[in-house]
Amino acid sequence: MSQKNEIPILVLSVVITVGLIAGGFWWFTRNPTINLNKISASSKNTPQTPTAQASGKTFAAVQNVPVGLFNYGGSTSWAPIRLAVDPAIQLARPEFRLRYVEPNNASPGSGTGIQSLIDGQLAFAQSSRPFLDQELSRAQQRGFGLKQIPVAIDGLAVAVNANLNVSGLTLDQIKLIYTGKINNWSQLGGPNIPIKPYSRRITDGGTVELFVQDILGGQPFGSQVEFVSTTTQALQKLAGSPGAIYYASAPEVVPQCSIKPLPLGRTQGQYIAPYQEPFVLPSECPGKRNKLNIEAFQSGKYPITRNLFVVVKETGQIEEQAGVAYAKLLLTEQGQELITQAGFVKIR
Question: pTM, whole model, 2 decimals?
Answer without folding.
Answer: 0.75
